[in-house]
Amino acid sequence: MRRSTLYRMIVVLMLCAVPLLIAAAKVGDDAPEFTATASNGKTVRLADYRGKYVVLEWHNNGCPYVGKHYNSGNMQRLQKHWTSQGVVWLTILSSAPGKQGYVTASEENDYLTKEQAVPTAALLDPTGEIGHLYDAKTSPQMVVINPQGVVIYSGAIDDKPTTDLQDVQGATNYVSLALEQAMAGKPVQTPATRPYGCSVKYRD
Amino acid sequence: MGGSCVKNKMERRHKSRCSSRALTSVAAVLFFAAGARAASAPIPHGTLELIAENQSIAPGHEFHLGLHFQLEKGWHIYWVNPGDSGEPPRVKWQLPAGLTAGEMEWPTPRRLGTATIVDFGYEDDVMLMVPMHAEAGLAASGPVQLGAEVRVLVCREMCIPGKAQISLTLPVKSQTPVPDARTAALFAAARNALPHPSPAKWRLSVADGGDSFLLSVSLGQHVAQATFFPLVESQVKDAAPQQFAVLPGGFRLTLRKSDQLLKPIERLKGVLVLAGVRGYAIDVPVTASKADAGEYGSSDGDRPAFVAAVPQSGTAVGDSRATDGALKCAATKAKPTAKDF
User: Fold this and answer.
1) Does any CB of chain B come closer than 8 Å to the CB of residue A193?
2) pLDDT at B44
3) A134 to chain B: closest CA residue
4) B262 and A154 in contact by Cβ < 8 A?
5) How far is B326 from chain A (nearest CA, A)?
């Protein structure tokens, strides 16, 4: 009896400790599963998109690096182009309440309308759970997941780590490059880069 | 106006609703002043001035200018390797013919940020020095104007990009330049804040330990604490705790590799700060891991030479062959292995 209690305690301790010990996903790893509420009220499960390419876009509407890609229309163009190719595009908002970039569902819906942004869904992640699963450091950090559920790209949106709108043109877009190469059956040539931008405004 | 909107919002520490357009329109003001110390230009939550060490420029001589940043409490700017987020200041010089600017000299940075996102930079008051060269053929005539357009990202919990136009005017004289007493203290402090050359008696080695670099330093004395700042981004995992172990007459730091590092590196360069005080520039060859190599490994490495920090352009890692290989290997791994824990 005492022994089984001890075992039970050990099992419980292990189960509690495991999530803290799992390293965040990096390129080549299985993309960690998550369930989230989208700004449109729907529940989104990553697992539901197995068999499709999925793009994750970390977002913060007050970050000037994010502003560069929305004010230039670059992010909207990418969303439109890739979702029309069957890619699932998930914008993720990991800012904690009270911090820059935190929005309610209706504020996010207003933002999407105003910016004419067309992600598949915008996911509310105020606890930062999804952000930490993917070790998201910045907005706009980008992750690409292949149809088998493996992370094939994580890092910057492009090779111009600035806030200058004019740097969008002529930049090499790593997300498009990864998708194009993977869809052509080629290895992704640049699978990991430093994700430039503003730090993600986590709760800590 | 956009600037005041931003500033008021920031001071109340509220979420900024100002558009990014307004944020980027932060004032770019042109100041002219004679002498080694020009008026300062505003940057977000601080000021920036261009100052000179000497009262005049002498043809054929090197001299130093300084970009002197003064920031409001809690705000920071970035080192040449900004860490997990942010961006270092960038300078576009506007110089008369015969004058050229060298590479920025970066003071030893500090670790900033949170438990999960760590940046490298400077708070409060910092001066970035730039060596300038005056050609021998530069005519000793009237005063010349030296200008710089500086783009700088200033952050606290949030980041504001700023742009400032700064300049100063100096006479060109053939006699040996005289230091300017008004700026002497600032240049002395800036030199003291630069990473020092590491002493010749030090023995350093870096072993590739798989998911970490093991940096061992034998310096013939007890050291209670050390921090390493990698000069090149995407080599070391910035937010990972640097495991410190005392060795006889020195120490070892275990530095987790960056997830973005997909191919081996030949050398580890950066700044080593001992006991939170003095920074030393180090540049050490990376050797294969040797489990039986003893406390300091068998390689002493090169004698650490002072390395002037050189801005690293581009963020991509590796060439295509190396990264392809790494991706294929990694992709065959279905689950994280014990090594990842």
Assistant:
1) yes
2) 98
3) B259
4) no
5) 9
Q: What pLDDT is stored for residue A88 in this prediction?
A: 98
Please count the residue pairs, one from chain A and one from chain B, whose beta carbons lie less than 8 angstroms apart. Answer: 145
Sheet holding B46-52, edge to edge: B41-43, B46-52, B62-71, B125-134, B99-101
Distance from B4 to chain A by nearest Cα, in Å?
Answer: 16
Residue length of chain A:
204
Contact in structure between A134 and A154 (CB atoms under 8 Å):
yes
Contact criterion met (CB < 8 Å) for B316 and A26: no
Domains of chain A: 24-199 (3.40.30.10)
**Beta carbons of B315 and A150 less than 8 Å apart:** no
CA distance B55 to chain A (A): 36
For residue B33, what are its two tokens? 């002043």
pTM higher than 0.90, yes or no? Answer: no
Q: Which amino acid is at B303?
A: R
Looking at chain B, which residue has its C-alpha nearest residue A21? B341
Q: Residue B35: beta bridge partners? A: B169
Question: pLDDT tens digits, residue range A90-132?
Answer: 999 999 999 999 999 999 999 999 999 999 999 999 999 999 9
Reduced DSSP (H G I as helix, E B as strand, rest coil) percent helix, strand, coil of chain B, to 5:
10, 45, 45
Could you say which residues of chain B have pLDDT below 50?
Answer: 1-34, 292-294, 298-341
Q: Which residue, chain included where needed, has tokens 């995992």?
A: B237
Place of tokens 């000793």: B140
ipTM rounded to 2 decimals:
0.84
Tokens standing for residue A152: 């094939």
**pLDDT attached to residue B36:** 55
List beta partners, residue A162: none
Domains (range + CATH), chain B: 2-193 (2.60.40.680), 197-334 (2.60.40)
**Which has the higher per-residue pLDDT, B326 or A150?**
A150
